[in-house]
Structures are given as structure tokens and as C-alpha cells.
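Troubleshooting log. The previous structure file for this entry was overwritten by mistake, so regenerating from the original sequence record. Sequence copied from the archived sheet and checked twice against the printout by T.R.
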Amino acid sequence: MLSGRLLCRPAASEGAAFDCETVVQSVTVLGLKSKPSTVLVHVSGEDTSAAFEYSETCSSLTVGGLKLRVATDWDIKFTG
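Regenerated output below.
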């Protein structure tokens, strides 16, 4: 997590390739002080709005409906 963005970058030292079929289906972020106005998912140069739920009581944000491969670069940005 960095400046309102959750980053996924597969670690591959010395050019080693990492291949995996595992996907992230949802993400829960704890400790957000306010509800974001939008949540954007950035994959392969494209931004897509994502469905999310914010719990004011728990200060938590859950982003669902994702199908993000862990072996690819992607990020989720919380704005607003």
C-alpha cells in the first residue's frame, strides 16, 4: 500500500519468470478514515471502476468482483 494505492508487482529477481494461475477475487483494506468516491483498478494500461463497500463503523473498504492474476502487474487506487 503506497499513497492510496495497493500495488501488485510479481517479484522476479535475476530475470526469473514467475507463473501462477492464482487470482485475487477481493481485497479488504482496514483503517481508511473516509469512504472513497471511486476505486479504480489499473491493469495492462487500462483503468476500470470497481464495485466496493465501505464500513464507517469498522473503517474498512472491501473491493469485490476482482479477477486479478497475482503473476501480473496491477494496482488498485482509492480516490476522493
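The two ends are 16 Å apart (CA to CA). Archived copy saved in two places this time.
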